[in-house]
Amino acid sequence: MTPLTFDRYPSHDEIATLLQSWAEAFPDLMTVETIGHSSEGRPLLSATVSDRRAGSPDDKPAVYVEGNIHAGEVLPSVVALATIQALLSRAREPDVADVLARYTFYVRPRVSPDGAEVYLTTPYRLRSAAIPWPSPSRQPGLHPEDIDGDGEITVMRIRDPRGEWCVSDLDPRIMLRCDPDTPESKRYQLVQEGMVEGPVGANLTMASSYWGLDFNRSFPHNWQPEYLQYGAGPYPLSMPETRATADFFLAHPNIFAAVLYHTAGGFIFTLPSSRSITSYPHDDLESEYRTLTRHYVRMTGCPAFQSYDEETDTARSGSLMDWAYSQMGVLTWVPELWDVQKTSTARPERVAPFQTLDEAGEARMLAWNDEALGGRGFVAWHPFDHPQLGPVEIGGWTFKYTHQNAPVQYIEEIAGPAIDWSFLVARSAPRLEIESIDVQGLGEGHWLVTARVANAGFLPTNVCQQAVDVRRAGTVSVDLAGVGAKVLDGGQRQSIGHLKGESSATDEPWRGPVAARRRADVRFVVEATAGTEVTVTASCPRAGRAVTTVTLG
Hints:
It contains 13 helices and 24 strands. By secondary structure, the protein is an alpha+beta fold.
């Protein structure tokens, strides 16, 4: 098996080669397919990981895992690849073998290959794709550029008696907001390293992004146009990358959960994303979903925050997590994998996402850069003669592999707990079993066949009420078939609705036995000769298949 190394962030071609080598080495456990092509023609790759000897992957409950829908978030690509590697390399361990036999992982390591290539091979940063949006031309203002040619786009500080920034006394690399009594001679203006498009005015303002598309704002649930939701694009699913994602979900009704890796922040975003939790008419997001979220917090040490901010009424419209849940009934999470502040400053966990550091925190972070990174994460301030602005100083954090993505030496320790949690999510799936089949002779070649079908999983067979509400939760069907066997009563296929899971257990015994809600008896009157074999199959898109054969007589 060609190992995944944690010493760099791979290119699209390297990912493709690695996936193909794994599929060839483990043909019973993995296949790779192209589910579409990017705007620039790169294949959009998806790996299916499941033990085919134990049944078709599409007949098993599935967890969808993806990374790198945002071009600059390349850490999730490696964590997604590490998920596949863990499944394959540990396939003989009993716990993992059980996961592979009973469940399926659909893994898409890189959703935005075009943008990721730009991010990995140039100094530029971008959200999703190197496509001009919303304007076909650069707008007036300051645009990020590597003007000193060091391969990084950092920050410029410019002497300005009206500037709002000054140099810290604690560490001269740190820039602080000025106090009212800061002398004019010590004040700076602080802006992104770059060039000005159009006239250089009295005030330097950042131009709107030239590459402004955000694939994770273009899904068709509560989608908002550009003037309300920046990056949404001209219409929902306007780009081939997002359309391929939606089509994949529609083609795989066995997906019951989705783990959508992002970075950064060091927490996990939970549902909902575009409207208040109080607007949902059920308790989906208060019950099993919250239990699984608590396990993420326990296993990773990272806090959870709701994507929709109830206090500020802040929505993330058109996100994949919201669409997958609200329109497909799939439980979704967005782990923001990397937290540079927690790692570098040894501070306690966040009480809110995206907090800023004080001066002492910045100093601790710089000390971490000096000791752990050998100083590579911070460019020392140095003078430069800007062709438009005159004398400036350029320096600051390199950002890409300090703030946005983890330095490579941290990747493996980040990936481990996240992968273990994704395995736990898979094991929470509903799982059909045929507990027993009773055959009773009725005389004259007639038989009563009673099959007891149970849900042995944690979640109910519909997974969540939202799946029922939007008609995406296929019910449990039970079939009886056999050569020479004719079903006279009950129908050859019977639907028994949905079965509760282990999560329905209650500490209130007066509500009735939990087991009764997790089981159902299905009866068939069959005409056949003694000795005929009949097969009973129980199936449900999100709960898998169970098959048992019995002999009449």
